[in-house]
Amino acid sequence: MRDVIARLWPAVVWLSLMTAATFALGELVERSDWAEPGVMADIAAERVPLLDQATHIGSSLSDTPVIVVLTALAAIGFRLALGRWRESVFLVAAVWSQSLVFLATSALVARSRPPVAHLDAAPPTSSWPSGHVSAAVCFYGGLAVLLAIHLHGHRVLTGLVWAMGAGLPLIVAASRLYRGMHYVTDVVWGLVLGVFCLAVMIRQVLR
Question: Cis omega before residue 115 (within 30°)?
Fold first, then answer.
């Protein structure tokens, strides 16, 4: 356990660089007069009841309470199943690293939510970046990484695992856009942030 935690310290440098990059880019998009409000208005104009309900489910896949509970359950499950901490530390570190970057930058970049009707209650954080999306990448993607490692030789199951790891974050991203909670750039950078944090933790904890 102590050896695994010691591997996390170099990640602080990488996460600090990502925080700086996220802040700088957030300031740029917040001050730029891009065409995104028009894109969001076009998306909102296509809303229908069926998609309203479907995207409610899609968005809730990465609500904070859901991610916290699922991460805790998965961490406990891996610890009990494998008798070691490495996988559990990896998953928790991946999820919380993106959360720290997200909270630090969203508190500094005052980007308003898209000027359309919001189908979810807007949290107090700014629109930049999408924490729902980055959390989905780190949890579902991180879970897929761990399961794929231990399913080597089972091609069908491994394929399903990777489909889940890639597909669920994309569903969350599309849902957040449809529901008027984020601009396109918010969810795109949420994907980038999630992949970055996941890659850092793979390198530092699982290598």
Answer: no
| Nearest CA-CA partner of 181 in 110, 132, 108 | 132
Q: Who contacts 125 (Cβ-Cβ below 8 Å, separation ≥6)?
A: 102, 103, 106, 107, 131
Higher-pLDDT residue of 67 and 32 is 67
Q: What's the pLDDT at 25?
A: 92
- Alpha carbon distances (Å) from 196 to 97, 107, 142: 10, 20, 12
* Rounded Cα–Cα distance for residues 44 and 49 (Å): 12
Q: Which residues contact 195 (CB under 8 A, 6 or more apart)?
A: 137, 141
- Residue range 164-174, pLDDT digits in tens: 999 999 999 99
If DSSP states are collapsed to H, E and C, what string results for the chain? CHHHHHCCCCHHHHHHHHHHHHHHHHHHHHHCCCCHHHHHHHHHHCCCHHHHHHHHHHHHCCCHHHHHHHHHHHHHHHHHHHCCCHHHHHHHHHHHHHHHHHHHHHCCCCCCCCCCCCCCCCCCCCCCCCHHHHHHHHHHHHHHHHHHHHCCCCHHHHHHHHHHHHHHHHHHHHHHHHCCCCCHHHHHHHHHHHHHHHHHHHHHHHC
